[in-house]
Amino acid sequence: MTLPYSTEPRTWDVIVAGGGTAGAIAGIAAARAGARVLVVEALGSLGGTGTNAWVTPLMRNVSAGQNLNRGLTDELKARLRARGDGATDAGGNDNWFNPEGLKVVLEQMLLEAGGEVLYHTQVVAPLVAEAQPTAHRAPPPAHLTALVLHNKGGLQAFHAGVFIDATGDADVVARAGSPFHAGDEDGVHQAMSLRFTLAGVETGRLTAFLGEHGQPQASPDFLHFWMVWGWNSSLEPLFREAVTAGVLEERDGDYFQGFSVPGRPGEISFNCPRIRADLNDGANPWHLSAAQTDGRAAIDRLTAFCRRYFPGCEAAYIGTVAPMVGVRETRRIVGEYTLTVEDILDCRRFPDSICRNHYPVDIHSVKGGARLLHERDGTAPYFAPDAYHEIPYRALVPVGLRNVLVPGRAASSTFEAQSAIRVQQNCHTMGEATGIAAAWAARDHGGEVRGVDVAALQAEMRRLGHVI
Ligand SMILES: Cc1cc2nc3c(=O)[nH]c(=O)nc-3n(C[C@H](O)[C@H](O)[C@H](O)COP(=O)(O)OP(=O)(O)OC[C@H]3O[C@@H](n4cnc5c(N)ncnc54)[C@H](O)[C@@H]3O)c2cc1C
Questions:
Q1: Cβ atoms < 10 Å from Cβ of 92
Q2: Which CATH superfamily is domain 11-185+330-463 in?
Q3: How far is the CA of 21 from the centre of ligand 1 (A)?
Q4: Exposure check for the chain: N or C terminus, fewer CB within 10 A?
Q5: Residues 134-187: pLDDT tens digits?
């Protein structure tokens, strides 16, 4: 039987596994650096958690009044604003965006750069070349030759010189047999959330209500309101009343947060519901599936709550339930360097820095509440308003593999450190660094990512607008 598409074997310089927050940017950067690039994505659009899990806005990462993530992040924001899908508020925060617009912008940027994308395709496992031990030393890091993919065409092996594992879960690294960390000291992960939107909201009336109830808003176009049990939110009495009335369950108040979305008037994006505590492993297919069910039921309760208790929401309806469960943390590679919370608190600098961060340690714990290490909490150098720490290139290089890089939330870091560096803008910058490095490794070093001249990479990133 002949299949109506080409099954000719093809090879690329760089294959990016997962076209999400870091992976899409990595693909664009690698293509702009001259590589033949394929981005393989399980779903039908780029952007990952920032689009398909509907995580908006970008969290701020500012030090001394300056945004620490530049380069392609700046270009994304400019393109989003130009099409009405991005906005800057009166306080100068330019991180507001519409996830549906971001899907379009990322795809345009990848294709314009000459990159290719293969949607609806799952990365199954890498093919690993046999390492050749010598008489005198341990085997060198293993070399991946291909990724086995699954899609409507069946199982296929796609070859490349360098692979970027941007699956968020380090799927490629884990299946290559390389070590990884997962969860906290007990193996317990941060909470997952299934994000959703309510459309048909009269935002003027909602704004007035929030103002009268202790959460004044600068503008009805940039709403941000929240409630977490025990965090002194002015909306807590309302939640208590709703729990007593049987509209909400107690756990619906573990984390509740709403945001405006540019380009979508009358729509509010919610950073909730939080998924049941025992379902916390996003790399466990049963947890992931049950999270969808659990989240949908909670969205139904939260919708009823908003309609009943928030003026302006009486006729609101569910606009979107994110097609992807929001997963904060699963596997994290063991890299050539593992970033720690001490590195963060001490504002550690690294000679091979590729990114600066001042976003706080932010753990959505399933062991009770949430934890945010914030300026007001301490006197460590990190808490100064002009502080930042750096992320080294080595944190993106998995031990035991010679032609693989891992940007994004699976970068090598402890549980606490990951909770700080995982925000989207850092994932962009890590993605951009790995995209350029992968293109250079494929072109000049036979795929060896440790062969890349990191000083030249830093100079190139500065040329592209980064502050590193
Ligand atoms: C609920 C929630 C709220 C958050 N809030 C904020 C916030 O307000 N602002 C902020 O800046 N950050 C926030 N974050 C953090 C941030 O969004 C994520 O850490 C970041 O987007 C992760 O980026 P990534 O590239 O590592 O992974 P992802 O963006 O998740 O990308 C992984 C991609 O790989 C694909 N993929 C996975 N496995 C495979 C496979 N085997 N084969 C093929 N494709 C695969 C996925 O479909 C996805 O597209 C939040 C996270 C969550 C979960």
A1: 9
A2: FAD/NAD(P)-binding domain (3.50.50.60)
A3: 6
A4: N
A5: 666 677 789 999 999 999 999 999 999 999 999 999 999 999 999 999 999 999
